[in-house]
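Quick bug: Thioredoxin domain-containing protein output formatted oddly.
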Amino acid sequence: MAAKRSFRLCSLVFLSLLCFSHSAGANVIDDDNTARLLELNDKTFEHDTQAASGQTTGVWFVLFGAPNCPACEAIEKAFRELAQDFEDNAILAKVDVTGNPVTAYRFDIQSTPILKLFRDRKMYSYTGGHSADQFREFLEGGYRAAPAESVPLEKGVVQQLREKLATAWAEYNKLNPLARLSGALLLLLVATSLIRFQQAGTDRVKKTSARVKQLHKAQQEKKGR
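Here's what came back:
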């Protein structure tokens, strides 16, 4: 019994240390005294940040960027500089939106770079300059001047498809009557072509089946003779 209690106590201590190291020490400092940013993706974003589920892992300042983006590279450099003396106050991370479409769609990322702060169960968009001092000022209280937005929930594949179809339908309805008529005629032409193609395939199958039956009947008649 005592052994079981000791094991449970050790397990709780281990988990507590693990959680603490994940939140407080998330900004990793390498041996050369430069910070290595955390990289989030579609699978880890909500799990790590808990942006829409309590934000118990800490305050997160996230860069939504892309490769071959000079402004993103400048921000990453400033982030590394900032992380060296700011690691206990905010976790600095980045997301490559070109490789993580679910996260990009969730936060409606239409261009890069985009910076968002997640704290106090809210989301704040950053629109200032890209220096470490400007980021520090924003994190230390400047964010209060920005609108506090609700964090969008994770969206499933079905919900994403529905929203995309709804958007496409809304865009279609915005077209002028002539364009809408042209689109409808094009859809009708495609549907008619598909029906004809399917009918032609069905006819070929029927003809082939009839030939096979005739050959089979002829072979049976020869055997009977």
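Actually, after a second look the formatting is fine. The chain is about 55% helix and 15% strand. Closing.
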